């Protein structure tokens, strides 16, 4: 039996050391505390606390009252004692501990002792803090991105200019919000593809634009053109298209970025100006012809 007990205690000691934990027992009649040998490493205190008052004196001042209240509540209710708190080590560093314990009573329900374990969870708490910081930072970045996108959408709407992004070899084309407004498409029901984008423009314009994109993908460089967009009601709108391939270091195409701007009013004004110039030239020809014939 003695050998079995010794082996059991040895296995327990190994398990406690591996988990950076220690066992302790609090005599609720005398107030004294006894600790397993692992407590020195777990608590970071070579001079063990012999009484409960000494123990609470070593708990971080901001946690001591709560730890004491949890212990007394557990003793009174019979529920498992669980607490996470900080202690100050001999070297001045602060570590986080987690204690779990059970209270034992006499036959007449008089509390006799509390037996439990304490583990060092400093690294666990640090990992939790880093995760919280990373999550908060991600949320801040997400909020900042949302704000930037809102400003971008507002600016693009005011300028009637939208942006698009296409990866060569894929059919899906990414659109900014303004493009859905320019082409009168519902984001929820319309998913732009290269085929559908080509069908948005006048059949005489699309082939030339596609050839320009192919040449740009092959040779590089910016491509620009004004294409006619035929709306569902038959109205013709003019769109200034611009695109440029983005390349890797090795020269391989990664994606094609571009913009679309509704320049209908400008295009119509230019067409009207061209018409007026033609009329003026015709009038000048007729005037010259009249002068010649009137001799």
Give the secondary structure arrangement, pairings included.
Layout: H1 2-18, E1 21-27, E2 33-35, H2 39-43, H3 52-58, H4 64-77, E3 81-88, E4 94-105, E5 111-120, H5 122-159, E6 161-166, E7 173-175, H6 177-182, H7 194-198, H8 206-219, E8 223-230, E9 236-247, E10 253-262, H9 264-294
Antiparallel strand pairs: 1-2, 1-5, 3-4, 4-5, 6-7, 6-10, 8-9, 9-10
Characteristics:
single chain; alpha+beta; 5-stranded antiparallel β-sheet; 9 helices; 46% helix; 27% strand; rod-shaped
Describe, in plain words, how this protein is organized in 3D.
- The chain has 295 residues and is α+β, with helices and mostly antiparallel strands.
- The chain has nine helices and ten strands.
- The strands form two sheets. The chain has a five-stranded antiparallel sheet with strand order 2-1-5-4-3, sandwiched between helices.
- The longest helix is centred in the middle third of the chain and has 38 residues.
- The protein is rod-shaped, with a radius of gyration of 40 Å.
